[in-house]
Amino acid sequence: MQLSGFTDEAGKDLATQIKACKELGWTHLSARSIGGTNIHELSEDDFRQAADQLDEAGIQVVEFGSLIGNWAKPISSDFDITLAEIDRAIPRMKRLNTNCVRIMSYAMEPWGENQQDTERFRRLREIVKRFEGAGLQAVHENCQNYGGFSAEHTLRLVEEVPGLKLVFDTGNPVFTRDRSKPEPHPWQDALEFYRAVKAHVAHVHVKDCLNPPEGSTEPEKYTMPGEGQARLLETLKEMKADGYNGGFAIEPHVATVFHVQDGQEPDWQQCYDSFIAYGKAFEAMVRSLD
């Protein structure tokens, strides 16, 4: 079973990210940002140095967490932005020898408004086609995007976009309303979501968290693996029974890296320590399946 993680949650600089991998005994990482900049937005010199640094450390990139179609981009955004991101991502993925790129299906519009389904499908077909043409696989994450509205929405994407596969995030359903069910739209059930989409899952992101308190404006609360409402251990058991043989990438979100105010710098030592603790806790959970 291949374990990795989004190491930009352990450290901003690549040296610290590599250090975290080595402390956990991992030979792979999930690449997203270096120095606070996404891989496909780095300068050519900075990317070249990063790729060489990974080679020297003997660390491989198992997936590329791109910004393509992500939760920050509305479907009305200029598609040329997306196409340019693809053009920059492809040669960098080739250099890093990774064939898996995480994409999304553009930001959710307020429920009840026009989601422009047809335009989303058109864009994703073109995105997948361009990566396929380079021998690369686009995988869609169930996050704060159209495909995250429900498992049914994700399956609609798979149906409408030939060649699309999925990266299943275990924690995102916990704080996302299930828009396939009647009002008041209950929180999604992570295990039910997995069961609905499992035939298309090629990779897994590991998060755990607690629902936002009903009637409050507080956000979801991220937890150590197995301490939240993602039904993580149950899901892992089912994945094993189903013969899932893809990778797992931890994406803890438990430290200050994702919870600081604009302009503030995270406590990077806390981030590093919590990433290591999370990785060890998840490894223990995986070993308990044997």
Automatic annotation (TrEMBL):
Q: Which GO terms describe its molecular function?
A: isomerase activity
Q: Which residues form the Xylose isomerase-like TIM barrel domain?
A: 19-255
Pfam families according to UniProt: AP_endonuc_2 (PF01261)
- Which superkingdom? Bacteria
TM ranges: none
Ordered alphabetically, the record's keywords are: Isomerase
Entry keyword Transport: no
| UniProt keyword annotation of Isomerase present | yes
PANTHER family for the chain:
HYDROXYPYRUVATE ISOMERASE, XYLOSE ISOMERASE-LIKE TIM BARREL DOMAIN-CONTAINING PROTEIN
Q: What name does this protein carry?
A: Sugar phosphate isomerase/epimerase
Whose protein is this, by species?
Answer: Coraliomargarita sinensis
| Taxonomic lineage | Bacteria, Pseudomonadati, Verrucomicrobiota, Opitutia, Puniceicoccales
